[in-house]
Amino acid sequence: MGLADKAKNAAEDAIGKAKEAVGNLADDDEMKAEGKKDQAASSVKDAGENVKDAFKK
């Protein structure tokens, strides 16, 4: 996995966590769900990159 991909995935995860926290504070279920979705997307991308890395070796 390239450093840029890792940084993008980490940023997406952090944004998702922030959205979820704001949703919790504001009691906004839609914002919480969006934050969780962003975190899940980041995890899926990480997993995909790890699979690609495994086949490169």
Order of SSEs: HH
Contiguous helical run count: 2
Q: Number of domains in the coordinates? A: 1
Radius of gyration: 14 Å
β-strand percent reads: under 5%
Shape: elongated
How much is the average pLDDT? 91
* Helix content percent band: over 70%
Name the poorly predicted regions. none
Distance between the termini: 12 Å
| Main beta sheet strand tally, sense and closure | none
Tally of DSSP β-strands? 0
Helix-strand makeup class: mainly alpha
What does this structure look like?
The structure is a single chain. This protein starts with a helix and ends with a helix. It has one domain. It has helices at residues 3-26, 29-56. It is mainly alpha-helical and 57 residues long. Residues 5-57 form the CsbD-like domain. Pfam families: CsbD (PF05532). Residues 1-20, 46-57 have a biased composition (Basic and acidic residues).
Structure summarized in a few sentences:
The protein has 2 helices and no strands. It is mostly helical and about 55 residues long.
Task: Output the keywords.
single chain; about 55 residues; mainly alpha
Describe the secondary structure blueprint for this structure:
Blueprint: H1 3-26, H2 29-56
Helix pairs in contact: 1-2
